[in-house]
Amino acid sequence: MKKQDCYYLGKIVSKYSFKGEILLKLASRDLLNVKPRSIFIDINNILVPFSIVKISLHKSMLLRMLLDEVNSEAQADKILNKHTYLHKNDLPILDKKEFYFEEIIGFQIIDSKLDKIGIIDSINSQTTQTLAFVDNSKGNIVMVPLVEAFIDEIDKKDKVIYVTLPEGLLDLNL
C-alpha cells in the first residue's frame, strides 16, 4: 500500500485499556463519521494493515479502537504515536459540494468579485470554523473560512473552488 492511495486519518495518542484498546486523534472533523473496518499504521515507513474489531467516538476528536492484532498493553505500546491512514476507497462518497479537507490542498480559490485568491496550502479544522490557508499571488498566506454559505461551486476535475466571500473578509488578513 502506498501513502498516495490513502487518506491521513490521524495519530494514535494513547492506550485506553489493558486489553490493547487505543485512542486515535483524528486529523480533521470531516472524519468524525467515518467508521472503517480496517486502517493502515505507518510502522517504519511501511503501511501495515490492521482490522478493526470495535470502534466508537470517545470524545470530540478521539476514536476509541480495538484492533484485531493488538490484544495487550505491550502490543498497544508498539503502535503509540504512529500515524494512521485509510484507503481512499474506504471513504464515503460525498455530494458534489462536499469534500475531504486533504483532497482540496493544491486547489485554487477564485472569488466571484475578487477573482483569483490563491492556492490552498493547508487546512486547519481544529478551530470553530475550518480555515484554508491560501498562498496568494503576492506570496502571502491568507485565511479563508471554508463555510458552506461562501462556497458556490467545487470543480474537482480542474481543482478550483469558486466562492463568494463577504466584503472586507480578506482585508482582515493583511
Write the SSE topology.
Elements (H helix, E strand, L loop, with lengths): L5 E10 L6 E5 L11 E6 L2 E14 L2 E6 L5 H7 L3 E5 L20 E4 L3 E10 L6 E5 L5 E5 L5 E5 L4 E4 L11
Parallel strand pairs: 7-12
Antiparallel strand pairs: 1-2, 1-6, 2-5, 3-4, 3-6, 4-5, 7-8, 8-9, 9-10, 11-12
Give me some keywords for this one.
1 helix, 174 residues, single chain, 4% helix
Written overview of the protein:
The protein is elongated, with a radius of gyration of 19 Å. The mean pLDDT is 88. The relative contact order is 0.17. The termini are far apart. It is 4% helix and 45% strand. The strands form two sheets. It has a six-stranded antiparallel β-barrel with strand order 1-2-5-4-3-6. A six-stranded mixed sheet has the order 10-9-8-7-12-11, with no helix packed on it. The protein is mainly β and 174 residues long. Strand 8 and strand 9 (131-135) form a beta hairpin. The protein contains one helix and twelve strands; from the N terminus they run βββββαβββββββ.
Number of strands: 12
What is the percentage of strand-forming residues? over 45%
**Gap from first CA to last CA:** 43 Å
C-alpha Rg, in Å?
Answer: 19 Å
The proportion of residues forming helix, as a percent range, comes to under 10%
Strand order of the largest sheet: 1-2-5-4-3-6
User: What is the number of helical segments per DSSP (H or I, 4+ residues)?
Assistant: 1
Mean pLDDT: 88
Order of helices and strands: EEEEEHEEEEEEE
**Main beta sheet:** 6 strands, antiparallel, barrel
Shape: elongated
* Residue runs with pLDDT of under 50 for 5 or more positions: none
User: Which secondary-structure class do the elements indicate?
Assistant: mainly beta
